[in-house]
Amino acid sequence: MARNAAVVVTAQRTASGSPGSHPRHALAPLLNSPVRLSVVAALAPVEKAEFAVVRELVEVSDSVLSKQVAALEAAGWVAVTKGRVGRRARTWLSLTAEGRVVYERHLTALRAIAEGAGAAARVRGGSDEGTGG
Prior knowledge:
Elements: H1 2-16, H2 34-43, E1 49-50, H3 51-58, H4 62-74, E2 78-85, E3 88-95, H5 97-128
Antiparallel strand pairs: 1-3, 2-3
Helix pairs in contact: 1-5, 2-3
């Protein structure tokens, strides 16, 4: 019986809540990839970083990083700059202003989901007590 009560409470909250009010709606689907999220997180605290440095931080191959950076660049979230240091070609990566905004919004949504997960677990935990687990 307690289990049914928890389901009713959840259903009532969903029915009365405004559509799109759950923090998951603020998540950026492109950042659901662990590698892309890691790349953006590596770039967030710096103005720019060499491709090789990001590759080492994220622990992926050149080809994997290139593919993920291309997707982030196509979205307008990462800028790629090529140049030379002495005779060596270099590639630098940086977050665009839009990329920083999207990343911060994504992190805020993840935090809100994580904080809300504790309350949902307490509700579920309370409803399972009467059913024997």
